Amino acid sequence: MRVALTPALVTALLLAVAFRCVVDTAGPKFRSDDPLAREPDSQDAAGVKESDIGLVYNLGYNLFVTASRRPEHVRALNVNTIDEVPDSSWFTNRIGAKPLTAADIVRQSTPGPPPASEKWTVIREKSAGFAPGFTARDAKGETWFISFDPPSNPEGATGAMIIASKIFWALGYNQVETFLTTIDRRTLQIDPEATVRRPSGARTPMTQADLDEVFERAARGSDGLYRAAAGRLLSGRVVGAFRYRGTRSDDPNDIVPHEHRRELRALRVFGAWTNLTDMKAGNTLDTVVKRDDRAVVVHYLQDVGSTFGMGANAPHDWDEGWEYLYEGDTTKKRLLSMGFSRSPWQTAHYDEHPAIGRFEAESFDPLTWKPRVPTAAFIEMRDDDAFWAARRVMAFDDATIRGLVEVAAFSDPAAAAQLTATLIARRDKIGRAYLTRINPIVDPVLDDEGTLMFANAAVRTRVATAPASYRAAWFTFDNATGSTSALGETRSSLESMKTPAPLPTTPGAFVKIEIAAVGAPHQSWNRPLHVYFERQQTGWKLIGVERMPEKA
Amino acid sequence: MAVAVVAMATPVFAQPSAQTREADIIAAQKAKAGELKPYEVGRVEAWVDNLEDAMLSGRANWHPFFESAYAGGGFTLGAGYLHHVSSYNTVDVRGSITPSGYKRIEAEFLAPRLFNRHGVLSVIGGWREATRVGFYGFGTDTSVDDRANYSFTQPYAQAVLNVRPTRGYLVLTGGFEVSQWNQDAGGGSAPSVDEVYTPTTLPGLGANPTYLHPQAAVALDWRTAPGYTRTGGYLAVTGHHFGDTDDQFSFQRVDYDIIQHIPVMRDTWVVSLRGRVETTFVDEGHTIPFFMLPALGGGSTLRGFSSWRFRDRHSLLLSAEWRVLVNRFLDTAVFYDAGKVTSHTSDLDLTDLKTDYGFGFRFHGPIATPLRIEFAKSNEGLQLVFSAKAPF
Predict the structure, then answer these.
(1) Interface mutation vs chain A, best among B55, B268, B373, most A CBs within 10 Å
(2) Which residue segments constitute the domains of chain A, with CATH numbers given?
(3) Low-confidence residues of chain B: pLDDT under 70
(4) pLDDT of the residue at A11
(5) Which CATH topology does B38-387 take?
(6) How many angstroms separate the CA of residue A536 from the nearest CA in chain B?
(7) Residue percentage of chain A with pLDDT more than 70
(8) Which residue of chain B is at minimal alpha-carbon distance from A48?
(9) How many C-beta neighbours within 10 Å does residue B334 have?
């Protein structure tokens, strides 16, 4: 097969070498620090300058250029040798990597104190997003970004914001600390220095009339108070949003093209689960913070509020989650058929609750779900990225989901029940869709007696039935040359099997095992998973997992 | 093979070695640290960003203006310069011209947030000229071959205040206009009205009335936006008094409007219905100049007929559209219009209606329809409609 040496492929291969030795080179396949647990930020990023990403250009580019992008089909470039994502300034392994209850997630995602809501002082207008709100200082002088619910959907936007921020924190993303709070208009003050940018472009002092305008667009509770989501001001210097493609050219540590970062590709799955339809660059944020002796850029998904069935000011539009804002093929079909070319969103059934909006599971299809506008990372997602993401989604058990929904404090228990049930049902659909598309063997362990144990992620989460048996081909592996020598083959109907021959005992020795299912309910399970173990003084250490080829 | 090529070109990776994975990444980051540069904005991106920034910052002064001096002028080109005179209030000086010589120049002062954002005041002063406006006779039983043309110039000044007292559906409108109509001979291929009619046979021929025109309206408007909506409706009654300062051509006109948009299958389609009646009442001893009579025909009324095709004392217009959501920016529509003009209100019934049908495209945003292209067919032929606003 002839492979075209495109610039993109060159970049991909270069970075693959940096992150893991998966190509046949003169050097060893595995390094002494594999699998990498943390992606270093070695260089000082103090010189990163603030830059804006234009909303209109970004929207147009993604709708008309990115949407027609052909995926490169390369493995994510920031995964380590065991096909996991190391911790980084983008991502932290949380749910799925360690046990987390809903209470753990709530506590750890909001380590600071909640806002002191006895008194609020408005210091600025809201600078981003369409939800009604402003920037304010609480009674203790801490700065918060305040956003309200639209009158049509009390508890809807704030509920989505508060739950989604916890979910995305648990999934590993940097999140703004967000709390539910209340604001009493009677005690609200305007800072004398507060200004508002007028349509003329002039900044003039903020007035009570400006606040009237905000509160007219906000849902007022029966107690006269306004329920709000309060996001804590991020530490560090804000330097703008990040793109879902390329790298930040002024950040020395940003060397992996964003479309090839697995955690950004995986937003296709996480977005589908939570219906995060608004993935524009404007909903991300980079800040420069001091870490150790240098400045580094920390990357946030700062606004995950357009989730479940709610947008900032109203329920999602009917086609949100189903179609991009513009699609050439769909346009052609509707044009020629005068609208009789049907789309699933036209018939999906919604139990539309004001606090939830349009969010359903019955017609939901994870494989066809779409945000409003595609991103390059969305296009580049492969099955191994989706598998990785789906495992994290499945790590949210029913109790955790229920517990996170409770954080929204919906006044109507039916709303909470509906959202919980929908999230659970969509989670299971995610599992069925993505845990079955590739070989789902996970967590391989090789003990001192030479017994290989593993799990089947699809079977464990009950989204598929177990195969009749498993087959494993065993090899010794020369890390320097990449050559292998067969040890034999074993089969078992269980998720464990014994080595067919004595394994090397010398520290530094490697074995490679190719594990596949036999008689599996899904053809894709027959393709073997390659796992590598290194012999260490204390036993066998998992050092390599190859779920799909480098370029597929 | 690919890696070998790369390895030669990029020293950092030239020697995949036994060094640690972290060391390789650090080396790559160190190499990038020597080549840092700010994000390079392409020309298109810079242009779009500048435009976006100008719009948001109030710096976008120049704008296109596609409103013709008078219906029937044809494809219109124009521009305006909008300047903020305060945080929200603007003055817009604009003008347009058409190939047939229709011209318009005007200045508008707009105060969009009066009375604590309950009121919008528009004050306009301007001048316009229409060179070949069609007149086909009175009533609907006229022939398209009877066309005669007239022209006019008109200086005008008007102030209109719209108030939403509850910020809800109720809209109250009051306005006052002073204008002078200078009707004259028409240009174009059709004969001029003064060649076909006399002042006796055509009231107002050659007249130059100056009108003081107060108006008042009460309306219920529950559309999402007048410029583009997929749901809601509009009910309005508007009363006009046209007072001729020379006391010859004074009259009153009352307009009744009803619009309803009915979304079907989650906005896949919208059935849009409109009814409009215009009735006039003449002061004793006065007549209504022919060019001030209610009229039908053209891109916003009976679309399959020429502009101003039918004129008389009263008019009835009914339109039905089946609008199709093609995507977020484009709708198509099949439409049917019916209407008549009559000399008596008792004749405003559903008999002998002039009808047309057609198909069109509407390029729109969430609140506006900047381009509407329609093909409309009637018994008098096919009409092509270009417009910068929604039909209703």
Answers:
(1) B268
(2) 37-104+244-434 (no CATH), 110-166+176-238 (no CATH), 441-546 (2.60.40)
(3) 1-18
(4) 55
(5) Porin (2.40.160)
(6) 17
(7) 95
(8) B38
(9) 14
